[in-house]
Protein kinase domain-containing protein
Amino acid sequence: GVLIPRTLLGIICLIALVTYKWQRRHLSADEKIEEFLRSQNNLMPIRYSYNEIKRITKGFKDKLGEGGYGSVFKGKLRSNHLVAVKLLGKAKTNGQDFISEVATIGRIHHVNVAKLVGFCVEGSKQALVYDFMPNGSLDKIIFSGEDKITLSWQKTFEIAIGVARGIEYLHRGCDTQILHFDIKPHNILLDENFVPKVSDFGLAKLYSVDDSIVSLTAARGTLGYIAPELVYKNIGGISYKADVYSFGMLLMEMIGKRKNLNEFVEHSSQTYFPSWVYDRFNQGEDIELGDAPLTSTEKTIVTKMIIAAFWCIQMKPTDRPSMSKVLEILDTDIKFLEMPPKPYQLLLESSSRTEDYFTKSTLVDYN
């Protein structure tokens, strides 16, 4: 009769230990966030309670979208100002992603960077409140879909320049160097006038402005936009040039109005868009983009975007320009622009090494 109580006591102790560890882990995460918020008090946007977040979103009624980070809901402040509330999923890293986003975006003020209106943190409940962007994200425009919006090449060019300015500001315009590590169409939001805003700083990292090479414990980014040095350590050190690479891939998709890698195209030569564009462009052939032929002004715009994109996606980080230089390229007369060498990964495209690079090694959405 003594065995059963002992077994029962053992089970109770085990449950108590597991509960204690769970509470300590969550308590330390909460304490970490609260300590950070106290230290940053003067820099912080408005802090909302969870009940206020529920009121702002009318009980999370109007969902705008969702991803690995959680869900986004439309909301309205008492002032009738429209907002987008990003409700974060279960915290995976002791609140580190949340702290990263609040710390990063809370100090940023630029027309091409999403503005953080406020935030909420109550235990495991975390939310970020942004200005609402009526035209959604850039992927709506550049990829086909039912709600596709068609913009002129001039407007597309203006969006590209706006995104470049936003990234340049992150790299050079603050008291710290902010590396985004997840530049892609989904993370570029558009206001009522299609002014682009770089958003989603969950993967961003802050570094000293003097750091030319930075340390990173794990690769971060999204398939199709992640810089090669984040996957292969022998290519070069990690720096702001990783964002430059991602911008180049984004620029390519803005030009092609399609995903860079598409296995369902009519001609196999067009499967990997950057490779097809480089070959045609280098041979002086016209690049057919859309149904209507390009005007001379549109050809100039597209040429600038192509040259800038190929400089950005050079394999070695040292061969890529800074975002300031990218803006210069986009502002220079095409007769003074030089086409860069074919990016090394495109030269290797038919080999197994590159097939590995574009599939196995980057088939992880690190979000």
In short: Residues 350-367 have pLDDT under 50 and may be disordered.
